């Protein structure tokens, strides 16, 4: 089964604790710092069910959402319609991004880029994003760090919300820096289902080099969505670069 298939139906239930609003405020602030106009065209890479996309649309940006999961895009479309918003949604793998024109800014949240298990694929995704940025356009994305995966370790996790629950078996291999988690979902309404996800941690220097190779100028590497510099204990890194 493709990941984020049935999961799309319960994704928002289990992501209620994610600080989407503060992330959107942070990204909008960075956009303003680097000259992205209100009303500019902005792309959400790996937009999922559209929560961030909807928040950014509220701020006045002309939004494009891109995701590899048709099920997630269906949820995003419903959310956009419910909020009386407009956005273009594209069913694409972001390493093969094709926007048919250039845009003012691109962002990606929720560790989407960690899903690329090969350096060549991650570099290709960054290069494709860079290709569609206007001159001085902004690219912002977050990634989980090796420290994050080490803290998760080899353990079981679980949660329940609104009558739905999941059991998560986590396994991190420090040699390959690949984190694999098997998740069994028990929806309130519907049959149980199972998904396997894999993500990879990348060093800051490796991602920095990819930005340079993509003809992008890194202008900030932060400890999560903050103004703090990255440290060895950081569990999330946010990159900001200009075309």
SSE topology:
Blueprint: H1 11-14, H2 20-33, E1 41-45, H3 51-58, E2 62-67, H4 70-82, E3 87-91, E4 103-108, H5 119-131, E5 133-144, H6 146-152, E6 155-161, E7 164-173, E8 178-186, E9 193-200, H7 204-213, E10 217-223, E11 236-242
Parallel strand pairs: 1-2, 1-4, 2-3, 4-5
Antiparallel strand pairs: 5-11, 6-7, 7-8, 8-9, 10-11
Description:
The chain is globular, with a radius of gyration of 17 Å. It is 28% helix and 34% strand. The longest helix is centred in the first third of the chain and has 14 residues, at 20-33. The protein is α/β, with parallel strands linked by helices and 243 residues long.
Short structural summary:
The protein is of the alpha/beta class.
Q: How many distinct helices?
A: 7
User: What structural class do you assign from the helix and strand content?
Assistant: alpha/beta
What proportion of the residues is helical, as a percent range?
25-40%
Order of helices and strands: HHEHEHEEHEHEEEEHEE
The shape, in one word, is globular
Say how many strands there are.
Answer: 11
The average pLDDT is 93
Strand residue content: 25-35%
Radius of gyration: 17 Å
- Cα(first) to Cα(last) distance is 37 Å
Unreliable stretches covering 5 or more consecutive residues:
none
Main sheet summary: 7 strands, mixed
How are the strands ordered across the major sheet? 3-2-1-4-5-11-10
From the structure above, extract its key features.
7 helices, 34% strand, 4-stranded antiparallel beta sheet, 243 residues, alpha/beta, 7-stranded mixed beta sheet
